[in-house]
């Protein structure tokens, strides 16, 4: 059951990277990775963020986790502003907020056994636990992710991708966090084990009351995992809605195109279409709606005025001149 209190909020978050320029260029190019993002994640919910590669979803996850500083805007966790904290002041939040990365091959230290990896996570966070308590906590956490006790003495290269992702999940869970940023946690895995890992994340949520910020490019994963979803395009949220509503009545033209690109078995054909057109560059993005070059509903206003998130006729939020309630 989803609670309504806010655990994490991001407001007005922008991330800009100056780009190399030619000495004759008068205006220095800037990559706008995030362009004024606002989100409010409720305690206990699975909040999904979906969009194509380069839309800013991973950048937003990294900003939330303090791995990247925003150029402007702020991040609050349980009422405390955390994006301006120094490393020492941030440490208690690192225990409460954990991250699971996309690539379980790259995210585990190849020179550490599984036990060392998990013990380091506990020690780094200053739990002050005795050796016996650490051993017990490791055993309990490994069991909770379906890892056999004999894995503890083995090195990461001895495991399959799915097993390594279980170890990564154990490393995240061992500090008893409340909030997890999961960045495409199943997309590097074989299709045959994706469902197992997704089920494991769902089970951890139920048992521990976790809140997820779940990043994915795949709307079919959102359908099975999420409570609410934010659709991102070129550094902005373009639609924000409960998951059921996104599938029943998508409002933004980009969301509709993303949904039409989900592989579905129906009629005689298995149809999977790519979203047509190219994403414009995030370096000095166009004036007006960033989706205009790909949008079948684009009109003159779209090319001069950037739409902001507003209520739609179905009660959800979308950034589109064609669906806003006047
Ligand atoms: S604002 Fe215009 S171009 Fe942008 S999504 Fe809506 S209709 Fe399409």
Can you describe this structure?
About 30% of the residues lie in helices and about 25% in strands. The protein is of the alpha/beta class and about 325 residues long. It has one domain (about 5-20, about 30-250): P-loop containing nucleotide triphosphate hydrolases (Rossmann fold), CATH 3.40.50. It has an 8-stranded mixed β-sheet with strand order 6-7-8-3-9-10-14-13, with helices on both faces. The longest helix is centred in the middle third of the chain and has 18 residues, at about 190-210. The chain starts with 5 loop residues before the first strand and ends in an 8-residue tail after the last strand. Iron/sulfur cluster binds near residues 253 and 322.
What would the keywords be for this entry?
single chain, 326 residues, 9 helices, alpha/beta, binds iron/sulfur cluster, 4-stranded antiparallel sheet, Rossmann fold, 8-stranded mixed sheet
Helices and strands, with pairings:
Elements: E1 6-18, E2 30-42, E3 46-50, H1 57-64, E4 72-77, E5 80-81, H2 87-96, E6 97-100, H3 114-124, H4 131-144, H5 161-173, E7 179-183, H6 191-208, E8 211-216, H7 219-225, E9 228-233, E10 236-242, H8 243-248, H9 253-260, E11 264-266, E12 269-271, E13 310-311, E14 317-318
Parallel strand pairs: 3-8, 3-9, 6-7, 7-8
Antiparallel strand pairs: 1-2, 1-4, 4-5, 9-10, 10-14, 11-12, 13-14
Bound molecules: iron/sulfur cluster.
